[in-house]
Amino acid sequence: MDIMALNIYGLSEIMGPGVAMECTEGREGMHVFEDHFLVETINPDTGEVLPPGAMGELVFTTLTKEAFPLIRYRTRDISHIITAPCRCGRTHQRMDRVTGRSDDMLIIRGVNVFPSQIEAVLVGIQGLEPHYQLIVDRVGTLDTLEVQVEVSDAFFSNADEVRVLQKIKKRINKDLKDFLGITAKIKLVEPKSLQRFEGKASRVIDKR
Amino acid sequence: MKVEQVSVFLENKQGSLEEVMRILKEANVNIRTLSLADTTDFGILRLIVNDVDTTSRVLRDNGFRVSRTTVVAVEVPDKPGGLHSILAVLARENITAEYLYAFVEKSGENAVIIFRFDDSAAALEVLRNNSFSVLSGDKLVGGQAVWFLEWGRAR
Lengths: 208, 155
Hints:
The structure holds two protein chains of two kinds. By secondary structure, chain A is α+β, with helices and mostly antiparallel strands. Chain A contains three helices and 15 strands. The relative contact order of chain A is 0.12. The mean pLDDT of chain A is 90. The longest helix of chain A has 19 residues, at 162-180. In chain A, helix 1 crosses helix 3 (162-180). In chain A, the strands form four sheets. Chain A has a five-stranded antiparallel sheet, with no helix packed on it. Chain A has a four-stranded antiparallel sheet with strand order 4-5-6-9, with no helix packed on it. In chain A, strands 14-13-12-15 form a four-stranded mixed sheet. Helix content of chain A is 16%, strand content 36%. Chain A has two domains: 8-101, Roll (Luciferase, domain 3), CATH 2.30.38; 106-206, GMP Synthetase, Chain A, domain 3 (2-Layer Sandwich). By secondary structure, chain B is of the alpha+beta class. Chain B has two domains: 2-69, 2-Layer Sandwich (VC0802-like), CATH 3.30.2130; 71-146, VC0802-like, CATH 3.30.2130. Chain B is built from five helices and seven strands; from the N terminus they run βαββαβαββαβα. Chain B has helices at residues 16-26, 52-61, 82-92, 120-129, 137-141, and strands at 2-11, 31-38, 42-49, 66-77, 97-104, 110-117, 133-135. In chain B, strands 1, 2, 3, 4, 5, 6 and 7 form a seven-stranded antiparallel sheet that branches. In chain B, a hairpin with a 3-residue loop joins strand 2 (31-38) and strand 3 (42-49). Chain B starts with a strand and ends in a 14-residue tail after the last helix. The model of chain B is unreliable at 142-155 (pLDDT under 50). The chains are: A alpha+beta, B alpha+beta. At the A-B interface, helix 2 and helix 3 of A face strand 1, strand 3 and strand 4 of B.
């Protein structure tokens, strides 16, 4: 099939897809529709506006939206702006592909999820410890999420049976699917397998 | 008579069983028999040992999830149909076993079947009423010389 795939960028807070898009001629970065949106990059820690070309958090201001305008809306998406002329002749600045996030939000197969949301699901299931680790990876073109969690001492004391442990795994899977819409592989681990964190926990290992 | 079993949660990974055995060796614990239930990512190691308290303490101290459960040890002749003779009675009396494992002291003599029942009391009564030999924990973990049979008595 003679199909050309083009990258497109958008966020639902603004309008969904269509804030920026690749041209068929250049295909090196997505032209931001600057007649509708003002784009800046900032240092996510200090808020300082960065010069074009510097890697930072994308910030958009809508110029033509009337019902729901946004002023310097922080996307938490990390990228950089390309100002060099494009071979297509358009003068709109381009943004490169988003390489990461300035917060801990994960995007698993297009679903946005925060570790705190996964934690809330785990805390709601009796028999689990609040220690967990999330392993995000990509197999082929699919994102995968593995949730490693411990069963509590009290839970295991009353249930040394495989089916009981498999039942709690199923419950975790179902709750993650029902509440967050994500599919995860659940792995029950020994208590010593998970690091104990002090202060701000880094619970995510993103291998993508 | 009921026997206490120690269960340990293990991840299905290289060296986890070795680690448990090293800890038990260092604690001078002797294992009478064991069974390992495994799934793709975790397993449950079940142990009959000579010292239940030490076993659960040292494994807990080393960061393992440990459970102590009551099981029933029944002796059967080591010959074809030995296990079936018990199961036939249990099936007839609607007693369900969660799991079981077995060991033989000496080939040709008796085998010991370790049962985990949902309802140990009911199972024990059925076994005794049918004159099966149920072993006590002390006898199970002692040397062979001091084994004796606690023949069931009809109530």
